[in-house]
Design brief:
With 276 residues, the chain is of the alpha+beta class. Helix content is 28%, strand content 31%. The protein has 2 domains: 149 residues, Fructose-1,6-Bisphosphatase, Chain A, domain 1, CATH 3.30.540; 116 residues, D-Maltodextrin-Binding Protein, domain 2 (3-Layer(aba) Sandwich), CATH 3.40.190. Bound molecules: 6-O-phosphono-beta-D-fructofuranose.
Length: 276
């Protein structure tokens, strides 16, 4: 069974997904399982990735943030995909991504069952970041080509922070924490997890979509976003938490389960964990 085959399929699809975005910026009359209005691009990217991944011999199941149920497609790895993370950025033409988690246990399962995780970032250029076997590597992706541009290690001296959610909806501990780190770090928040985490991987710092007063489990989904991104950041030398434990240790009982997400330099994540 080959994890590389799965990652190659995602890399090959990335330039196609990117080139199909311009005509798919409008909302359609459907909601995904998490209650968000879908864009034509969400549905199209999901169908493209679903078809391609289901055709890979080493894929046993396909789960997507855009589909209600896990689809069994054979024997092999269980692949969870957020086809267009941050797709609301499409209207304003800001960056977005694709997130992929490759699990070796029936879904839903914890992040400890991940054998690889990756994201594609549709920024000024298309990059793909892959975590496997304890390290994280960045690639530049162009049609027919995935070029290794080096291993990623979180800088020891952090520079940036980005937190999602409305400030009045944050619990007091989160607000206190942000007030403190405002004096230490620069704010970088763009509204797409992949793009915001990429800043943290590049410059060091912390990204969080915390628990909210109105929704204690926050906004992001553990299987499609929280666990894969934690796997990537931890493999790059950083840390993750849901407020109590590593995101990789969170028990997952529902496919579309939400979780607070903190990822970044260990010291910053520890301090936030101690405050909430
Ligand atoms: O899960 C979707 C998502 O777009 C994430 O990529 C991003 O971090 C978050 O939602 C942005 O939410 P908000 O619009 O509340 O800042």
């Amino acid at each position: 069974m080959s994890v590389s085959e799965i990652l190659d399929v995602v890399a090959t699809a990335a330039p196609e997904i990117r080139s199909g975005l311009p005509g798919r910026r409008t909302k359609i009359d459907e909601q995904n399982r998490s209650g968000e209005r879908q864009l034509a691009a969400d549905v199209w990217a999901d169908e493209l990735l679903g078809d391609r991944l289901a055709a890979v011999d080493s894929v046993g199941a396909y789960a997507s943030e855009e589909r209600d149920e896990v689809e069994n497609v054979g024997d092999g790895y269980l692949v969870a995909v957020d086809p267009l993370d941050g797709s609301s950025n499409l209207r304003s033409n800001n960056p977005m991504g694709t997130v992929v988690g490759v699990y070796d246990d029936d879904l839903p399962t914890t992040g400890r069952s991940l054998v690889a995780a990756a994201f594609v970032l549709y920024g000024p250029i298309t990059t793909m970041v892959v975590a496997r076997d304890g390290s994280t590597t960045e690639y530049v992706v162009e049609a027919g080509d995935r070029r290794d541009v080096g291993e990623i290690a979180l800088p020891e001296e952090p520079t940036v922070y980005g937190f999602g959610g409305r400030v009045p909806d944050w619990p007091a501990g989160v607000a206190d924490y942000v007030e403190t780190i405002e004096g230490e770090l620069k704010l970088r928040y763009g509204g797409a997890m992949i793009a915001d985490v990429s800043q943290v991987l590049t410059y060091g710092g912390i990204f969080a979509y915390p628990m909210l007063q109105s929704r204690s489990s926050g906004k992001l989904r553990i299987l499609f976003e929280g666990a894969p991104i934690a796997y990537i950041v931890e493999s790059a030398g950083g840390s993750s938490s849901d407020g109590t434990r590593s995101l990789l240790d969170v028990e997952v009982t529902e496919v579309h389960q939400r979780t607070p997400v903190f990822v970044g330099n260990a010291d910053l994540v520890d301090r936030l964990e101690a405050t909430v």
